[in-house]
Amino acid sequence: MPLRIEDYALIGDTQTAALVGTDGSIDWLCLPRFDSGACFAELLGDSSNGYWSMAPAGPHRLLERRYRPDTLVLETEFGDGDDDGIVRVTDCMPVRDEHPDLVRRVEGLQGRVRVRSEAVVRTDYGGIVPWTRRFGRRLQFVAGPDTLYLDADVEFDLSEHGRPWTEFTVGEGETVDFRLAWIAPHASSPARVDVGEAIQRTSNWWREWAQRCSYDGEYRHQVVRSLITLKALTYSPSGATVAAPTTSLPEQLGGVRNWDYRFCWIRDATFTLLALLNSGYEEEAVAWREWALRAAAGEPAQMRIMYGIEGERRLPEVELDWLAGYADSRPVRAGNQAARHWQLDVYGELMDALHQARLRGIPPDQSAWKLQRALMEFLERSWRDPDNGIWEVRGPRRQFTHSKVMAWTAADRAIKAVEEFGLDGPVDRWKQLRQEIFDDVCEHGFDSRRGTFTQYYGSSALDASLLLLTTVGFLPADDERMTGTVKAIRNELMQDGFLQRYTMDGNSKEVDALPPGEGAFLPCTFWLADNLIMQGRVDEGRELFERLLERRNDVGLLSEEFDPAAGRLVGNYPQALSHIALVNTAIHLEREHGPIEQRAWTGQTAEDGD
Ligand SMILES: OC[C@H]1O[C@H](O[C@H]2O[C@H](CO)[C@@H](O)[C@H](O)[C@H]2O)[C@H](O)[C@@H](O)[C@@H]1O
């Protein structure tokens, strides 16, 4: 039985990340970047695909696990059989100087404990067995483009089926240190490091970063944990945030909805920008904005919905058929075919992100406005085209209501750039466009019989993305079309207290081309809380928010979805979109009726404005 997804904690160095289980085993780590092949891939396969365990050798149990306050330094404590002996394993990835490092310290807290560690290193997602050599207390693993070194205070034995292992005893107050480093094969071998100093430096780095959080409300503890998670998912050399550090953790246990999230989605990243700006992280927000402008630069028709972490456009999807999949959920995929999608909303997302930056006094330079004008020209020609929608469905393209509203958002922000920031553009034409889209959505995307907006033009299906119509300012929260939509979504998409993304009935396969069935989508449930707060139903919004907080695991992490029947987190993990939504709703609750800065709602719609 694999560990549950929520049994893992995250450590990372802002260029890649690892998952550490409650059993002390590191079962996922891609080196040197988030999107590289994994050297530990047991998460998606079995022990032959690589892991690094560290726990008492005999019978033992987990006593406690936590992050050092306001850091990404993880401490896991184990008691031996009768709790006479207690050890602490401290894990972290120091923020990188030259190459990636992962350090582990075993510390005796009480009595004497025999500890066992196995370091089964693989490359290319557990598919390649490297050439392993021992030089005293140093192991070297070599395979093609990857060379790894494991330094330890104790010697490893290579005799057990080629799986390096070691056993040692720690007494109270004693420490035994380990360090795994990755280097390019042509680089010289890494010098040894002082693990205690590396852990201290890493703790200080995260604490200083966390102190910059400007949110000081009642959910500060949870907000800071989510922000640290977002920072850990942001590739620091470029400023791009990955949607999650994993691939193919299933949206349904045993199912086929298994995707690679180690890329940067324009949509997700725009939400990230808002969360960062709202919590005082301007530097990160500026880095993201510059990344987005570089990534989207060029011909607007060629803009992508997602990019690699350095802005790469080709992200071919392949199946890793040697991996059995988490809980037998196959296929395991690397790369994401959604990179080739046409999703209309990204133009609105990008226009809105740049508008938000201007609103907060961090205007992009003139060349950004040139790009925005080019995007608007493209959108004026293309907004009527069907697209793959926010959920990236793999069925036929459709006239998705949310996508059209995001085209409206693009026009709205272009108008505001001229009227509020004095930029130059055909504002009358854009006003006409905004009105035209508004009328089109209200005519075709609204079911007047049921009093709700619908997933796509002419359909009866509901879609939780419609909750975003208020946050972008398309309609005020108390407009009866929105209260009707929120009511219908609550009635039909709520499952055991959490929202499904869209109607999953016999017809859903026609839309997403996948067998029905997935967990409840946590970001959408946060969006429902936002709408309730905006309607003035703050207590109901808070109650829902707190229900969502309870779904976080013991170290404050969320995946994308929650399976209410199994009572388990599902989907890629930890997921940026869920943590972003948590931060935004917490801030929103603080301001109660004022989501104003959350998006760009200014109280004026095309209807009552012009
Ligand atoms: O379920 C279908 C799609 O699922 C993934 O997309 C989802 O994750 C994205 C990243 O967080 C998010 O932007 C999108 O709105 C979600 O639907 C997957 O990446 C797609 O390939 C897949 O079709």
UniProtKB/TrEMBL annotation:
The protein's annotated pathway: Glycan degradation; trehalose degradation; D-glucose from alpha,alpha-trehalose: step 1/1
Entry's EC annotation: 3.2.1.28
One record GO biological process: trehalose catabolic process
InterPro entries registered for this protein in UniProt: 6-hairpin_glycosidase_sf, 6hp_glycosidase-like_sf, GH15-like, Trehalase-like_N
Domain GH15-like residue range list: 218-586
Occurrences of domain Trehalase-like N-terminal (ranges): 4-150
Needed co-factor(s): phosphate
Classification via Pfam families: Glyco_hydro_15, TREH_N
Entry keyword set: Carbohydrate metabolism, Glycosidase, Hydrolase
Top-level taxon in the UniProt lineage: Bacteria
Catalysed reactions listed for this entry: alpha,alpha-trehalose + H2O = alpha-D-glucose + beta-D-glucose
MF annotations from Gene Ontology: alpha,alpha-trehalase activity
Top-level EC class: hydrolase
Coiled-coil intervals, chain numbering: none
PANTHER family reported in the protein's UniProt record: GLUCAN 1,4-ALPHA-GLUCOSIDASE, TREHALASE
Protein family membership: Belongs to the glycosyl hydrolase 15 family.
Protein known as: Trehalase
Protein source organism: Streptomonospora litoralis
